[in-house]
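F.,

This is the one I mentioned.
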């Protein structure tokens, strides 16, 4: 049985007409020079779109109440606002600071809301057959809770008197790997106004944008994965979920409320938000194939005739077709992957760390050759230092020095990569790493080290690097002097 009934669609249309009458009244007052609420009109338009596109059961009681009590358009708008801004999110969030993401973008409904009730019903029933839902339907929001860095790439705003757990304990977000990779005002979902003759014609018109929604959902899920993995481990240990069960599939109700209560305990929130120790890696996501992009892969399999479905996952052509701004294309994507190798060089043990350093050095040398940029050349040099330090760490007399030099070079390269994209993020990273990488010596020794570092910088670099056609002398940063190794 369909979740969209023809008779009920008529009842919804009557409620929508009431809201539209109020909107028209407000616009007429404004045209006459009277003061009106522009936000109220926007809220009413949002309410209209939600009723039109959501399943019948989503607002069933409200529709019945609005018609039986002959509620005004403004009263209906206010009730819907309470439902979609409070009731629904509160029942769906994992943590109170989470945001609810609409799997199929709300912006898609703008075009749908312009059509006749008959075409809208045909469209919704066709979409249902294809497995797509819209608006505030539970099918379009269930399990789509995300911490703000995974939802938009930003931190949630501070609230007086409360701890901002995502900001205090988690890593910064990356907009490209979030539920809104093109921003919250995504131009890819804006359609030219047009009246369609059938629901099938309308569905085919917005079909390409469904791929963008699928891709955005994959990005948010990838960014949020460490957090959810931690939450599920804690919940399994408490017997609140079964082995192999995902919390993203549990509907609102008493059981989910028990889960929400458990994860809201401060000690659990720290572990859950703190599980995001690193910003989501762009290259790792893109190169993950179906493992990281299951929703987009499903779209490609379901609609093979679509141009975007004919482009392999992870290919530059696909990323170009998704119309996202990578700020420098392939070079930026390569840098993102090399940042991950630098992290691996710091975190991995023995041969794994050395292999990561070797791969990073080769990659950065290639980028330096492509761009000719001094900063890229310097980063290739730092990667070379890291690799040399890793190799030296296998020889007992030089092991401590080699390990320290390698780690310092890796951290420096990570900091430079972060600074290219977000200077504030880089500063935070630097503050966190300084105390870990460089033990703080006595004050007099610190002064002496700084003086020696200044002399080394003034003297200039002595080490020459050759990687393919790239030849350059490493700049002198005075790192070994600052660390007390020279």
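My design for it:
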């Amino acid at each position: 049985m369909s979740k969209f009934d023809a008779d009920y669609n008529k009842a919804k249309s009557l409620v929508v007409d009431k809201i539209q009458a109020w909107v028209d009244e407000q616009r007429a007052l404004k045209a006459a020079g009277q003061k009106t609420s522009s936000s109220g009109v926007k809220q009413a338009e949002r309410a209209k779109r939600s009723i039109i596109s959501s399943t019948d059961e989503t607002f069933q009681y409200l529709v019945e109440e609005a018609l039986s009590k002959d509620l005004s358009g403004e009263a209906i708008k206010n009730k819907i606002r309470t439902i979609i801004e409070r009731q629904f999110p509160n029942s769906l969030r994992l943590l109170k600071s989470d945001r609810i993401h609409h799997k199929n973008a709300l912006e898609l409904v703008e075009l749908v809301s312009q059509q006749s009730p008959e075409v809208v019903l045909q469209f919704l029933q066709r979409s249902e057959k294809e497995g797509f839902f819209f608006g505030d339907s539970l099918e379009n929001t269930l399990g789509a809770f995300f911490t703000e860095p995974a939802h938009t790439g930003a931190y949630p705003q501070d609230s007086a008197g409360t701890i901002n757990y995502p900001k205090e304990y988690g890593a910064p977000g990356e907009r490209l790997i979030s539920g809104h990779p093109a921003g919250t005002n995504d131009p890819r979902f804006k359609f030219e106004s047009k009246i369609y003759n059938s629901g099938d014609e309308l569905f085919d018109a917005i079909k390409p944008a469904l791929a963008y929604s699928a891709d955005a959902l994959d990005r948010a899920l990838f960014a949020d994965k460490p957090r959810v993995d931690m939450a599920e481990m804690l919940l399994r240990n408490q017997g609140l979920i079964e082995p192999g069960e995902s919390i993203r599939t549990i509907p609102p109700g008493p059981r989910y409320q028990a889960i929400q209560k458990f994860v809201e305990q401060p000690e659990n929130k720290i572990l859950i938000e703190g599980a995001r120790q690193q910003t989501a890696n762009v290259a790792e996501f893109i190169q993950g194939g179906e493992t990281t992009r299951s929703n987009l892969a499903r779209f490609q399999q379901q609609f093979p005739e679509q141009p975007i479905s004919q482009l392999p996952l992870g290919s530059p052509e696909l990323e170009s077709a998704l119309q996202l701004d990578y700020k420098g294309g392939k070079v930026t994507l390569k840098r993102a992957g090399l940042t991950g190798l630098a992290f691996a060089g710091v975190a991995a043990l023995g041969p794994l760390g050395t292999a990561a350093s070797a791969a990073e050095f080769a990659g950065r040398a290639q980028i330096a050759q492509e761009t000719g940029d001094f900063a890229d050349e310097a980063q290739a040099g730092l990667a070379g230092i890291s690799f040399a330090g890793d190799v030296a760490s296998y020889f007992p007399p030089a092991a401590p020095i080699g390990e320290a030099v390698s780690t310092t070079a890796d951290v420096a390269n990570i900091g430079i990569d972060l600074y290219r994209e977000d200077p504030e993020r880089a500063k935070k990273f630097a503050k966190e790493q300084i105390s870990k990488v460089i033990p703080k010596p006595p004050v007099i020794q610190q002064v002496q080290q700084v003086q020696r570092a200044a002399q080394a910088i003034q003297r200039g670099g002595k080490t020459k690097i050759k990687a393919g056609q790239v030849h350059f002398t490493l700049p002198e940063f005075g790192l070994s002097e600052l660390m007390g190794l020279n």
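The radius of gyration is 27 Å.

Talk soon.
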